[in-house]
């Protein structure tokens, strides 16, 4: 019996569409127990208690990659990452499943190989990379591989997650994006993404607001989020340095100076969580 | 009598189209002498020895901005930056002229104001910013202002400039660019620009080749450069970490590990210069 802890992740971070991602200080903790054969789920919703479960699918994919026989397993999940909110709950299942299968088979793989398996299940590198290695990451795909950098950032912000009661599927959220954009908008995001990386690495907080600018995805995806305009207006009355839609949404992240008192936050029936960056990433606990 | 020294600049730097720029270790040195009235040029080609001269136009623009009377001036130029090669010779004239006018009128302005005047003459922020402040810069326009960051980079590369005998006008080079691009190509450049900044700031040289990738401008502009494909092939046989078209071209920059012996470089009738980053930017010499 062992556990795998995997952090929530917030992909995109404003201008860094399909590129930047950060690991956050809430985790899913998945417990793996050896079983004679097949898969059994404990404390998992009925909907996910079958062979299509993403954790189990990721285990099967890993065994296939390793050319190892699959093992029987009892999986239980302490689920703290909200589902379908743009907080990387799928990436947590995938990374958790891969590490679970590796650990059960007493095998290890490089981060590059783990991410390659994860990519074949997720299709995008920006959640799985920080879920595995923590911190803020820049990730891109080169053919079937993920190339990534883990940023040694100045840890000087608090992240306030505004999580609405209803989720959106990533698929739905991808459909609203245009296939072509203007060169001007591309340059806008190139400059902001460059500035965001420089801001996070240098600690030059005065550039953060500018550096969170985006023209590639948030203007389209925000229309799917009920209450978004009102929320941005509300956040504008407070001392946030900036905000961004987490991943494909609908959760929205407000960025504040570390330790700054933000008042009694309340917005409709949305859940609000104050989080920090998780620097460790996924971890096996024996 | 005083002089203003302004460095050559290389804009774009691969993925950083209209955003990134670096100052290089060759300079134009402009000498300003008071004159009773009007403008006189010494050691300047006939073509540029008139009131339309960009240095003089930049002086007029500065006096207009300051609401100062214009002064008579004798301008001479020690010209080391090749013209129409994508090496920022226009930006050097503009920044030189602004600093010349300020110095003659015993006035100072913030970098932000100097760049605002320069923008009204140049239209793009990516050469004028490093020409003024040196190093590698991220610059973007917000309405009429330039917002910029000067990067405190790890200075670990040599830059080899390959300069063809014939120039291209920036205007011509801008015409070949499409107005719209695919979202995929935009994301490609966002990720590379983010990685390039992280690479330059962290010193993680192993990412440089990947981080110089670009889909926004070089594939179009390279077609205007006679011998480009051959040059890239030639550079591929040598130990360059990567290459990029300097500004709008046609000069091409090869990036090498600092101090690495690159052999006896020769390519057609192109001039080849080994340069480094200029960290100071423009400087007034009395």
Describe this structure as you would to a colleague.
Two copies of one chain form a homodimer. Chain A is α+β, with helices and mostly antiparallel strands and 286 residues long. Chain A folds into two domains: 2-152 and 279-285, Ribosomal Protein S5, domain 2 (2-Layer Sandwich); 157-275, Alpha-Beta Plaits. The first copy, chain A, is 33% helix and 28% strand. The first copy, chain A, has nine helices and twelve strands. In chain A, the strands form two sheets. In chain A, strands 1, 2, 3, 4, 5, 6 and 12 form a seven-stranded mixed β-sheet that branches. In chain A, strands 9-10-7-11 form a four-stranded antiparallel β-sheet. In chain A, helix 1 crosses helix 2 (89-104), helix 2 (89-104) crosses helix 4 and helix 3 (111-122) runs antiparallel to helix 4 (125-133). The termini of chain A are close together. The model of chain A has no long low-confidence stretch (mean pLDDT 95). Chains A and B meet through strand 5, strand 6, strand 8 and helix 6 of A and strand 5, strand 6, strand 8 and helix 6 of B.
């Amino acid at each position: 019996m062992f556990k795998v802890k995997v952090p929530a992740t917030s992909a995109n971070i404003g201008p860094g569409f399909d590129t930047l991602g950060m690991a956050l200080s809430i985790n899913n903790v998945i417990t793996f127990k050896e079983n004679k054969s097949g898969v059994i789920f404990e404390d998992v919703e009925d909907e996910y208690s079958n062979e299509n479960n993403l954790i189990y699918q990721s285990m099967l994919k890993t065994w296939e990659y390793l050319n190892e026989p699959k093992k029987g397993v009892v999986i239980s999940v302490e689920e703290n990452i909200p589902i379908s909110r743009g907080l990387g709950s799928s990436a947590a299942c995938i990374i958790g499943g891969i590490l679970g299968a590796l650990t059960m088979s007493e095998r290890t793989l490089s981060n590059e190989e783990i991410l390659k398996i994860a990519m074949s299940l997720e299709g995008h590198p920006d959640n799985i990379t920080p879920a595995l290695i923590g911190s803020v990451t820049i990730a891109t795909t080169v053919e079937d591989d993920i190339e990534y950098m883990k940023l040694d950032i100045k840890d000087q912000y608090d992240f306030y997650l505004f999580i609405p009661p209803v989720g959106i599927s990533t698929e739905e959220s991808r459909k609203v994006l245009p296939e072509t954009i203007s060169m001007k908008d591309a340059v806008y995001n190139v400059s902001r993404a460059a500035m965001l990386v420089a801001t996070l690495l240098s600690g030059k907080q005065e550039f953060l607001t500018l550096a969170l600018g985006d023209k590639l995805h948030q203007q389209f995806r925000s229309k799917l989020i009920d209450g978004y305009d009102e929320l941005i207006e509300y956040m504008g009355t407070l001392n946030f340095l900036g905000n961004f839609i987490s991943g494909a949404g609908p959760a929205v992240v407000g960025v504040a100076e570390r330790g700054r008192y933000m008042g009694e936050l309340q917005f409709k029936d949305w859940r609000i969580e104050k989080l920090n960056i998780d620097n460790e990433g996924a971890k096996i606990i024996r």
